[in-house]
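Progress against Task 2.4 (sequence-to-structure conversion) is shown through the following example record, which the project officer requested during the mid-term review.
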Amino acid sequence: MMDRRLIENFDWSIIWVLLGIICIGLLSVYSALYPQIRANPTHNLFIKQIMWLSLGFGVMFFTLFLDYQKLKAVSFWLYLATVVLLAAVLVVGKEVNGSKRWLELAGFQFQPSELMKIVIVIQLASYFSTQEMTSYPPLKKLLTPLAFVAAPVLLILAEPDLGTAICILAISGTIIFFMGIRWKYILAMMIGVIPLLMPIWMTVLKPYQKRRIEILLRPDLDPLGAGYHIRQSKIAIGSGMLWGKGFLNGTQNKLHFLPEKHTDFIFSVWAEEWGFVGCLVLLVLFGLLVFLSLRVARRSKDRYGALLVVGMTALILWQALINIGMVIGLLPVVGITLPFVSYGGSSLITLCFAIGIIESVSMRRYVFQTR
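Structure tokens generated for the chain above:
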């Protein structure tokens, strides 16, 4: 029988905010895929999105019954298995548009890099909570977690998937910053990165990735080629003005000027149809989700739970910031989806698991209150 205190500590405010974001996502995906839905009402990507959402909620519900403390014992093995999957992608992964990011098992395709976003949080939280570590740990204590981060990031860059690699670096950096890191280490790291910029540009980045960075710095460099995506996105967002053009009335969307509109550029679809007011509503909902999640971290009575929540919140926050920054032209196009809004199975399941972990920590804080 479930302990009554688990239900009492369940944070319903997080779920209500999450449902608001998901509703916005369903409206946007429906609009983006409307021609496909009309052509085939019973078999289209919108139906698949609903199926992915159902599976994601199932994963979230299962996670609620999982005592997050048990993840600590298997964290390293989860990390090792995911690194092996990332290596397998480079050998037997499915290639799409020149990138190998997908593995196929028993007819089911998934991205191990999405799984790594969750696993790196679990592994870093486990490491920092099991070590005898005070605030502002010495540099030698940070070498091991940096190695944990470097291995998957290098494998993901080799796929290549710059966006996910940046996202994992941002998530990991947030956890390390939360633990406390001296400013002299941050300054030394920034100075140390400067000499590496040119070698990275020359040897690591692919030609199309370099072109995207050039487009960011010079938006009119190639308006019909590499700059087409971001140019059309800006037109869509700007044409929405204050109130938007209305549901299903976005011209950039309806006339197929906007590429990748149901995935990477879903925010542009929403902005064109619902305008500045609609964008403000979505941003407020994301802000509330982050605030409420961090409140769970603050209320947590153990370091491991707090670190887990901070990491899962950072996953949602950074992915949203990178995607929105990308579609409005403040960041290069790196192929990051908007959490709970964009179409996609692996991402939805990963994010629902993250919410489940946050709620699991919230529900079990009474265990430490009674000790």
